[in-house]
Amino acid sequence: MVAASAPLLVAVDDDPGLLADVERELRNRYSADYRVCCLRSPDEARRRFQDVAADGGEVALVLAGEELAGRPGADFLAGVPSLFPHAQRALLLPWAHVGDPPTGDTVFEAIARGRIDQWVMRPAPPPDEQFHQALSSFLLAWAETRRRAPHTIDVVGETWSGRAYELRETLERCAMPHRFCLAGSEEGRAILTDAGLDRRLPLLRMPDGRVMEDPTDMDIARSAGTTIDPSGDEYDLVIVGCGPAGLSAGVYGASEGLRTVVIDSGSIGGQATASSSIRNYLGFPRGLSGADLARRAYQQAWVFGARFAFMQQVTNLAREDGGVVLSLDTGGVVVARAVVLATGASYRRLGVESLEELRGAGVYYGAAAAEAPLVAGEEVFIVGGANSAGQAALHLAHYAKRVTLVVRAATLAAGMSHYLVHQVEQTPNIEVRTGTEVVDGGGDGRLEHLVLRDRTTGGQETVDAFALFLMIGARPHTEWLPPTVERDDAGFVLTGADLGAEALRAFGRPPVPLETSVPGVLAAGDVRHGSVKRVASAVGEGSIAIQFVHRLLAV
């Protein structure tokens, strides 16, 4: 029998027959781990919510009919976060309404206004695995917000910053679910007691129970079985970088029979892991996180035969008679018939010394999804005006009292997709300050305040701030490349027709569209000059690069 403290799954529908269908599916599949509560009245559901909250219980998922008591079901779902801010909320739609334009507009508007999180088709006669696939994704999203995701790593540290923060950054880059607690907290003491109190901090407790004391990044990669030593080997294809473009190239290269290795100084996902919800990615109508996309792509490439060398830095490349020779920071050498550069780009530094000193203690680069639950009820600021900043604002708005988006440009539309601008503007606890920049800030060991400057008037204002997330433009990871690889003034790699006249003459043939100034070396994704800074574009370029690799290898 399920425990009385188990999280609640709630369905509300005033049609008894339709409610019975939903209740049947919930009880048949989830009653072993969740309490199931199905009610016919929104008022009855609200009373039940108050009782559960008073008892300290949790609600994981709320499903509601499209219309309840003569009002939109979204109106009822909009009130759920006041008691259960992490609960997933989904509108139940009949099959006949999926594809209906007015219904689509209504769902889009409800999501944009933060009134619902998801939608799902009503269950068909069992077994309706499509219905349960959707519900499983909702429950996983809830589990991740509550740090209950499967295979979660526990990080225990003495402080928020320092090495403990660096480890959390590493795990974030690896797209590994993790949670952090201070050694002096109740949870931290329990983990240390279980592991043995004389352990060296910071400490990682792996999902299988193993304990790692102050591990290096390479130790983490080895513990997860996700790295090899590629030096001394020859490959058909070496991919440098494991973001969306590199993962896509890895999937297509390996699946098409090329002996493929992916090398990255970090781990999977690149900057995409900072995206908490990518809603405009083809084939995922309910959205997915950047970390989830990275994990799926990594597993896909691995099964096709791609090999991965994580926490290893490529320091140089040169074209020689035997192919392209790549040097590693370990002293090893890898030889490839073709290379795809997919090193991506990272967020630029703010350059404010007082805030750089608080990195990891309230100041974060990227969306830092792992930090989101820690800002509950607090004042949060995001600097940036691109899609990733908008996605971060929407994600953090589920937790924070208020999220302020600080944008240097005069309008959000200058750098953000229309659908995201609409969602940001419709979210009541997101404030947008355009024409503004952060010029100072500080706190006693942790961020407490920021200084904002109006770029038009020059006027400054000091505001309370619990957290600052910086997402302020891309800096390509190309500093390691030799001068033979042509780049633009910002450091992005030139390819194809953008190459200089001298490089084009040296080829003796027309370069393929993604080829750099070094024959046989291609570039894909954010690192490439002229690329569209979108996940889908990076994935597309990674796949296209492989077609050009085949063409080059056939010469």
TrEMBL record:
Pfam families according to UniProt = Pyr_redox_2 (PF07992)
Q: Which residues form the FAD/NAD(P)-binding domain?
A: 235-542
The reply to whether Oxidoreductase figures as a keyword in the UniProt entry is yes
Q: Any keyword Protein biosynthesis?
A: no
Q: Which reaction(s) does its UniProt entry say it catalyses?
A: [thioredoxin]-dithiol + NADP(+) = [thioredoxin]-disulfide + NADPH + H(+)
Q: Which SUPFAM superfamilies match?
A: FAD/NAD(P)-binding domain
Q: What is this protein called?
A: Thioredoxin reductase (NADPH)
